[in-house]
Write a structure and sequence with these properties.
The chain is built from 15 helices and 10 strands. It is α/β, with parallel strands linked by helices. Helix 2 crosses helix 11 and helix 8 packs across helix 13. The longest helix is centred in the last third of the chain and has 20 residues. This is ABC transporter substrate-binding protein.
């Protein structure tokens, strides 16, 4: 065999290896190392992967200096993005669809939740004789913030009973101690919120749960399919201009998701801030066990999940026309898949 033939064969082998292992290519440095993240109700389990990745230093490990601003609800976090005071939002995937219906293009880059983890409950004290959803007409319903995912889920549940959003009053109560106080003091008649708040109210006998998306089974019953929940979303232009930054963000979150797959209750308690426990460690852990399967495993958003979200939104939001929404522009799995390969998630 001639040296030329050998060199050709060696070149062919190297070329084949390069094609077969694109994920092994070195990741470039983030274009933007300081990243402002907006979130609506950071202490909720809905955003636990964000807190875990922050507390364990996974953003720093990716070369990022993140500043996280916490708002009363997802709608306020979205406003921060649209007002250019945040680069990225840790929020509900359905906002990407809602905004596209208004000709604003934002995109999910990594999925944290594969179920909304939102439950709706009626106050046992305020509505003692509750028989069905019709009893909520004219009532005050607490949500994290008007326009947030808790508000959207409530609208969906009520719409199935023929109740319009205008036939109830929505009150923003946040996702922490204020939400507990609002229901217990009688300021609201029902609540649609996340955990640990809902489990705490449920276990103390303050509410009767009437709709539950804290499990995959419950989510399927409410939405008729898988429903993507918390994600990192940002302007489509930001994704195009800062691919390495987006990859670093996805890496940090998927690293956190991987950690959560094997974390025990004591690991969670040691990692989250004390204030997140709302003064009741045992109930906080009971809440975690209830929502654990709702946390995503690998950061990837399922295609059928995007379709479920569009169908759900269109059922109660007249401005959302399914035929005018391009779902492919509402999310990308490119970053999540690379992060999944990197961390074997």
């Amino acid at each position: 065999m001639t040296r030329t033939t050998l060199n050709r064969r060696r070149f062919a082998l190297l070329a084949a290896a390069a094609v077969a292992a694109p994920s092994l290519r070195a990741q470039g440095k983030p274009e933007k190392t300081k990243v402002a993240i907006a979130v609506g109700g950071k202490a909720a389990f809905y955003y636990l992967p964000l807190t875990i990745s922050e507390q364990l230093g996974y953003f720093k490990a990716e070369g990022l200096d993140v500043e996280i601003s916490d708002f009363a609800g997802g709608a306020k976090a979205l406003q921060a993005l649209m007002g250019n005071s945040a680069d990225v939002v840790s929020g509900a995937y359905e906002h990407t669809i809602n905004m596209q219906s208004k000709n604003q293009f934002i995109q999910s880059i990594v999925l944290m939740g594969r179920a909304p983890q939102i439950a709706m409950g009626v106050s046992v004290k305020a509505v003692p004789g509750y028989k069905g959803l019709a009893d909520l007409r004219g009532k005050k319903i607490g949500v994290s913030a008007p326009g947030s995912s808790t508000n959207m889920v409530s609208n969906l549940v009520l719409s199935r009973a023929g109740i319009k959003a205008t036939e109830v009053s929505y009150v923003g109560v946040g996702t922490g101690a204020g939400a507990l106080a609002a229901l217990r003091s009688g300021q609201i008649d029902a609540m649609c919120n996340t955990d640990p708040v809902m489990t705490m109210l449920e276990q103390k006998g303050d509410v009767r749960i009437i709709s539950d998306t804290r499990t995959l089974k419950g989510t399927h019953e409410v939405f008729g399919g898988p429903m993507p929940a918390a994600c990192f979303y940002t302007h489509s232009d930001f994704v195009r201009q800062n691919p390495n930054t987006c990859q670093a963000l996805a890496n940090a979150i998927v690293h956190g998701l991987k950690w959560l797959q094997t974390a025990g209750p004591s690991d969670i308690i040691k990692t989250v801030p004390e204030s997140y426990l709302l003064g009741d460690r045992a109930l906080y852990l009971a809440s975690f066990n209830k929502v654990r399967e709702a946390i995503n495993i690998d950061g990837v958003l399922p295609e059928d999940g995007a379709k479920t979200a569009l169908k759900a939104l269109a059922s109660f939001e007249p401005t959302v026309k399914p035929e005018k929404i391009d779902l492919a522009k509402t999310y990308t799995n490119d970053f999540a898949r690379r992060a999944k390969d990197k961390f074997k998630a």
